[in-house]
Amino acid sequence: MLSYRHAFHAGNHADVLKHYLLIELLAYYSRKDKPWWYIDTHAGAGCYALDSEQAARNAEFDGGIARLWRDRANLPEPLKAYIAAVEQFNPHGRLLFYPGSPALAMTQAREQDRLRLFEMHPADVELLQQTFARETDQVVVRRSDGFAGLRGLLPPPTRRAVVLIDPPYEVKEDYRRVVDTLKDAMKRFASGTYVVWYPLLARPEARQLPERLAELGAESWLDVRLAVKGPSPDGFGMFGSGLFVINPPWVLPERLEAVMPWLVKALGEDDEAGFDLEHHIE
Question: Which annotated residues bind S-adenosyl-L-methionine (predicted)?
């Protein structure tokens, strides 16, 4: 959707969960010297000024990264690498910028690693290219549909990759395209680690998506959900988010068990806040 701009939502509770997990995955991949690829189907602008008109309009970061930032001296150990990555963009101690998924991935990239980024919105593509202007050998930005573009990159030469699929879900078709894209990707590159972000909404498409992803038949998978509040009585609005991971590292469930209760306490808005964690790892 060309109308979607992530700047309005940068640093919210969904970003916190998604980006913490992304750092975990890339850190795990970096345990070996072998290079990895990071592929992002909906990359956004790369980095966001939290005092911009878009970010300040709803100030969603106040209910997300800002809460962790204020208490960053007391974070549980698994969250420290994520906050350290955010600190690289805020070296003077004030939370002024929030890095998107590509920028955070770049903080973990070594010389041999590569980023492949897709984005459709022309303004965000321009900002994304500016963000990575110095990393021309490592980063390729494409103004194209990430759903369609992914298939042309699989399998990557390294045979090691983390793929983030996080559309805005502003149209129902996104739910179908996520399933179809992942089904095709698993045929082309079965050993890749795929991360699908999805919103917690009352609408049936959102509720059914994790089940449909599980039915794709991956031997190893993980599904984690963070609800920051209960669903609204009228059924409208996002009350949390989830991540479905195919081929997760075996250490990830234990790390999440340590982090998720803390995130519920830090980001929860009412007594219906909570988390769910399911996994089957071969």
Answer: 19, 42, 101, 119, 145-146, 166
